[in-house]
Amino acid sequence: MADTAIAYSDSGAGKTSICVSIAKWVYELYGLTTRLISVEGWEPVANEGLIQAGIVSAFNVSSQPSLLSAMRKLSRGYWPKIQEEEVPTLDGNGIVIGSTKKKVRRIVEDKNELAKVGLYFVETADGIADAFMRHIIKEETIEEDDRGKLRVKSIGPQGSSGRYEEDGEVFGGNSEGHYNIVQVEMHNLFTAFSGLGGNVKLVFWTSHVGTGKTKRTGETCFCPLLVGEAKNALVPSWVGECFHLEDIPLVMDENGQVIQQKQVRAFYENHRENGIMEGPQYRCKSRVGPSDIDALHEQFPGGFINLGVGKGEGLDQYYRWLQKRKGESASEMKKWKEEIDASRRTA
Questions:
Q1: Who's near 111: CB < 8 A, 6+ residues apart?
Q2: Is the pLDDT of residue 61 over 50?
Q3: How many of the other CB atoms lie within 10 Å of CB of 301?
Q4: Cα angle, residue 5 at apex, residues 26 and 179 outer, rounded to 5°
Q5: How would you class 260 by CB atoms within 10 Å of its CB: exposed for 0-12, middle for 13-18, buried for 19 or more?
């Protein structure tokens, strides 16, 4: 299974930029490319030339007519591909008189192309969840009955929450059942993407900041946003790493002297907002084992990673360290085993 992670923050803290550093690291280390799935944009990635260079392949799913099924296919390794298909040619009466070839874009399975992919970057979890909610409402307004009249489809257990019709247009809000559908589907997607297998090394999600309730104590916390609040606090348990990006602003005194440099911190441990001692915590975690905690703190003191824009200064520095640490841990364990085996032989 692929490793999994999520980074969440307010807008403008550099979530999309994480894709740049990690995609370059994956290509450098493994020679594998990245698939970027988004309902927003990917300007930082395009500006770095990664798409033009063929290192990143990007796909905006927001306009897909079958959005939920499209995301399921993507989570199984399918990807958009231009295909040439035979399309019927009709006369003025709608009768088929022949066919013509037309290029169409389909989400299809291609195991050979999937084998070249090492990273999936999905942005953003809450954007996709929100698109699901809007998609369900849209689908509810377009079905016609046998008499040609519009009727609301009952996708959720409760159908639409309220319904209003004006000049043939039907309006409705999301119901509690719709929230449940989307929350369950998002959990399924997290699980499905992590099971892609093959050469996929990492599936990295992003999200904005949401609130939730911790399962053990019921306390309010900050956590990755999905839709609603019911599942937000559970998202960190769906992934290996959960980072909160805190944007530390540039502060200058009245004379123009810098008091505090602008920086972005990727927290891997629970923390509160900069300078605040009380209140809800931001939920974070790292997947390193107990024996690696001290080494992690030594490498990245304070429970966070300072992010920059140069090589090895992005979040890739965490994964570079993690890769190196795995090798060191394996060597240490091998040495320990040899010592134990030797002591048994001399006992």
A1: 77, 198
A2: yes
A3: 9
A4: 135
A5: exposed
The tokens describing 123, both together, are: 């942005």
91 C-beta neighbours (distance < 10 Å), count: 9
Distance CA 154, CA 215 (A): 32
The DSSP bridge partners found for residue 121 are 36, 204
Task: Compute φ and ψ for 211, nearest 5 degrees.
Answer: -120, 155
Tell me how long the chain is: 347
Return the CATH architecture of domain 3-79+110-346. Answer: 3-Layer(aba) Sandwich (3.40)
- Measured from the Cβ of residue 309, the count of other Cβ atoms closer than 10 Å reads 11
Q: How many whole angstroms separate alpha carbon 303 and alpha carbon 299?
A: 10
Q: Count of alpha carbons within 13 Å of 201, Cβ hemisphere only?
A: 17
Question: Mind giving me the DSSP string for 104-148?
Answer: EEEEE--HHHHTTEEEEEEE-HHHHHHHHHHHHHHHHTSEE-TTS
Return the SS3 of 71: helix
pLDDT tens column, 144-198: 556 665 554 444 444 555 666 666 665 666 677 788 889 999 999 999 999 998 8
Q: Kindly report which listed range (108-112, 156-160, 293-297) carries the lowest average pLDDT score.
A: 156-160
How close are the terminal C-alpha atoms of the chain, in Å? 41
